[in-house]
Amino acid sequence: MDGADRRGWARIHGWGRRRRGWGGVAAMAAACAVAVAATAAPLHDTADDAVRQAQSTASVQQASAQNTCDHPEASLPPSGASGTSVQRIIRRGKLVVGVDQNSYLWGYRDPTSGNIVGFDIDLVKAIAQDILGDANAVTYKTVPTAKRFEAIRKGDVDMVVRTVTINCQRLQQEQVLFSAAYFEAGQQLLVPKQGSSITAFDGSLKGKKVCTAEGSTGQTKLEEDGHGARVVLVPNQLDCLVRMQLGQVDAVFTDNALAAGQAAQDPTTHLVGKRVTTEYYGVAMNKNDKDLVRRVNQVLQQYTAGGSSSPWMQAYRKWLQADLPGQVPPQPLYSGN
């Protein structure tokens, strides 16, 4: 990020409801690795029927087409076994996880506590609790979007939990495996409420500067069919919001789940058009750590079970429901391997 961008961080607006005390996004760019403590979410009787329907429809579907990538979200069946990869983590006594510290609601640095918190972080804690018996036995390493898979390949982290979309290209080229899906999202445009002629992912983008993160699925979609947009790439998605506030780009193209968080940060922006892709977030791990993938899938099975009282729904109500209503856990899809 250049000097103008850094100055622009201070321009990000207040947080509105449940966001008082936040002095801007600059606080999220502090240290790169901390251990944080979780806050329990209150229980409410909402979304019971939707959750039960999603889970009962196909809680354990089988997909035989993973190798052809017809179903990239198909993961290895769950298992509670402690294989080589899980034992490595147990011996170390810490789960090392690549996360974001700039994605509001998902993984961001709380300005009061200094801890990294969010929906993704609550899932990390559940994994640590299952493997190590301690939700706080985590070393967090912040990684930019374009470096997520490199960190996994090099062994710098055990996994990345950072709104990572599951897709064929990543399975085939990045040497990673994914857990079962834990959230459904899709690419959508974020624009200023005032003065923007962009109405959707269509011809209104012609000649406009559209910002997305390098290495993201947003970049892939824009390169496939950008409707004449001029693509601007940045290391991290939040940089796009800053550039749009500075007038350097006309729109942000990112997952609607992330864009909703950015719109919450800056109420002068909003989402336009429809979601143009369907994507699933998964926990990314090294392709050789199959026992760890299976273990994480068991954690997810437990994490999403229990209807409106499930840990997933508690985290969803705490972090996302106000800005992304109507969500339920995606049904898991497993390969037969």
Largest sheet: 5 strands, mixed
Uncertain stretches of 5 or more adjacent residues? 1-67
Q: What is the name of the CATH topology of the largest domain?
A: D-Maltodextrin-Binding Protein, domain 2
Our measurement of the CA-to-CA distance between the termini, rounded to an integer number of angstroms, reads 43 Å
N-to-C SSE string, H for helix and E for strand: HHEHEEEEHEHEHEEEEHEHEHEEEHHE
What strand order characterises the main sheet?
6-2-7-16-8
Please give the domain count: 2
Helix content: 25-40%
Q: How does the overall form come out from the CA principal axes?
A: globular
Number of strands: 17
What quaternary form is this?
A: single chain
Overall SS class:
alpha/beta
Region (Disordered): 49-84
Organism: Actinacidiphila oryziradicis
Protein name: Glutamate ABC transporter substrate-binding protein
Transmembrane segments: 21-43
Describe this structure in words.
The chain is of the alpha/beta class and 337 residues long. It has two domains: 28-34 and 45-184 and 279-335, D-Maltodextrin-Binding Protein, domain 2, CATH 3.40.190; 188-272, D-Maltodextrin-Binding Protein, domain 2 (3-Layer(aba) Sandwich). The chain is built from eleven helices and 17 strands. It has helices at 3-9, 48-57, 84-92, 119-132, 148-153, 168-173, 217-225, 237-245, 256-265, 290-303, 311-319; strands at residues 61-63, 95-99, 102-103, 107-109, 116-117, 138-142, 159-160, 176-178, 183-185, 187-192, 209-213, 230-234, 251-255, 269-272, 279-281, 284-286, 333-335. The strands form five sheets. Strands 6-2-7-16-8 form a five-stranded mixed sheet. Helix 7 (217-225) links the parallel strand 11 (209-213) and strand 12 (230-234). The radius of gyration is 19 Å and the shape is globular. Mean pLDDT is 84; it is low at 1-67. Keywords: Membrane, Signal, Transmembrane, Transmembrane helix, Transport. One of its GO terms (biological process) is amino acid transport. The chain crosses the membrane at residues 21-43.
